[in-house]
Amino acid sequence: MSQSHSDTIPLHASSQSDIDEIENLINASVLSGPATVLPARPPSPQRAQIPVSSSSSPFIPSNIPPPPLSYQKPTPVPAGPPLPPASSASPGDRTISASGFGSAPNTLTEPVWDTVKRDLSRIVSNLKLVVFPNPYREDPGKALRDWDLWGPFFFIVFLGLTLSWSASVKKSEVFAVAFAVLAAGAVILTLNVLLLGGKIIFFQSLSLLGYCLFPLDVGALICLLKDNVILKAIVVCVTLAWSSWAAYPFMSSAVNPRRKALALYPVFLMYVSVGFLIIAID
Amino acid sequence: MQILPPNNGGGKGQGYPSLASSSETFEQQPTGNWRGVFSITSYTQYFNIDTDVVLNRLMGSLSPIDGSFFSKIVVNPDIYGPIWISTTLVFMLASLGNWATYLMEKHAGKGSSWTFDVNYVNVAAIAIYGYAIAVPLGFYFLLQYLGSNANLVQFWCMWGYSLFIFILSAFPLLIPVEILRWIIIVAAGAASACFVGSNLRSYVDGADATIVVIAAFFLQMALAVFIKVWFFS
Prior knowledge:
The structure holds two protein chains of two kinds. Chain A is mainly α. Helix content of chain A is 55%, strand content 0%. Chain A is elongated. Chain B has helices at 51-60, 69-73, 80-108, 119-146, 152-162, 164-170, 178-203, 209-231. Chain B is mainly alpha-helical.
């Protein structure tokens, strides 16, 4: 393909090799497929992509006359990938995506229920990995391979709403404080581990700290329904211990063992403060 | 398409530091490089501390007369201690302050009108964080103006650790007896203020040192009184 370019327009010497390199990368990525790391569960289908007809090359030489000699820039002129012929397009036509890269199912035109169901199943599976005992817990690399942020978002908002319902005065301030503490707390805890020299991935850690709030959500719901102080104290203690147990292996394995307590103490502090909010709001 | 962006550890913010980039954390940041402000690796030097060292410094902050705290931190001042001591103190003041108000009302007999006041969190955060950031900054500029050589990070470190006494004293302050609360807070405030004062004196020896030391002493006492009046009345 590169040989056919030379008889129409002389490209700059280095740009031809760049074009070749980019073409090779495109071909290699089409052949090799998605990431090489095996996830713990089948990966979600690829995101929606702009449909590109696979028969066209992005580097179509144009027919403009050769540029003046002093102007050595190459002529990239891709007129854009040619759009699929209009005659075959109809509303809801699913054939448009069939010519895109790879053979992923089309996530842009699937029913909404499919999308929601896929995200919900991912939330449930991540929850089972993080909060309930399972053989992958000790290995942080496997623990949350397919992390997402929907689950943490739901749990934080649910906790804020539950606390707000339980409060008899200043409901909106209670929600604001709870949401701010939890959201900023997750970010600050992750930054704390990174600053102590630990090795974690930022969003994976945010996701994990959000999932560990699930026991406190359950505790807050129980305290909303039953208003006895002793019962609330017991429930909060149990769920606090559960949350801390869930977060412990991930946080402690991320840092140097001599600094383990320094990384774990802020996690404990955040959960204790949320637990205290749950008990004290009535 | 798997084209990788050039992985310069100095320019990227705190996103996705994967295992492969750990080697980049050891590259030297050129001084005066403004992008270092947004990179985590330029701050890790202030968190280069182990659990036993932190505990040692916490114990050292409890001795008011010693004056040797700066010798402990001069080599490796840390910001971890001040940040988490301040945060713990904010949480303690908000939660125990609410609890103390509840106990006080129950002790006085009319226990039905108490509700959890979430504003305590806001006031505590503004007061403690503001104090811990602004006062060392002010003293740093003051000492620079007076000519002696001051190190801002060490000041933040020392003032941050001086707040540890208030965390410990927050528990006895729950006892709903007014006289006892005043005694406790005055004792804690005096201990903390003496800690700050003696360390400042050992740091700056000069003719103007006395005024600086006395000013620091009174600021710390003022913080103690504010804590008592606002949270534990």
